Amino acid sequence: MTTKKLRHDPEAVSFSQARDEMFSHILRCGVIDALPEHQKDWFDDTMLYLADRYEDLTKEELEQLRVLGERFSQPVQRKSETAVSGAA
């Protein structure tokens, strides 16, 4: 048996729905432009909400969601001009 969850697995569906909902909230709430301390507070509150809404998610899955959300909330890092010209 593989360790990957199948699409029809209810936990996999809950994780996907929770992830998509969190990403949507991040975009609507302006989390990407928020200060780091405000992002932390927002994620603390949002993870409590998601834990209540998706009761079948494990603690590890909720931690994974937070990591994904925090990564999603980081500003895009562009390659600097010196790094690009140094490679030429």
General description of the model:
With 88 residues, this protein is an all-alpha fold. It has a domain at 10-69. Helices cover 67% and strands 0% of the residues. The protein is built from four helices and no strands. The termini are far apart. The mean pLDDT is 85.
Q: How would you describe the oligomerization state of the chains in this entry?
A: single chain
What would you report as the Rg, rounded to the nearest angstrom? Answer: 17 Å
The average pLDDT is 85
Number of helices in the DSSP assignment? 4
Percent of residues in beta strands:
under 5%
Q: Which parts are unreliable, with pLDDT below 50 for 5 consecutive residues or more?
A: none
Concise summary:
The protein contains four helices and no strands.
Task: Record keyword descriptors for this entry.
single chain; 88 residues; mainly alpha; 4 helices; 67% helix; 0% strand; globular
Write the layout of secondary structure elements.
Layout: H1 10-29, H2 36-53, H3 59-72, H4 81-87
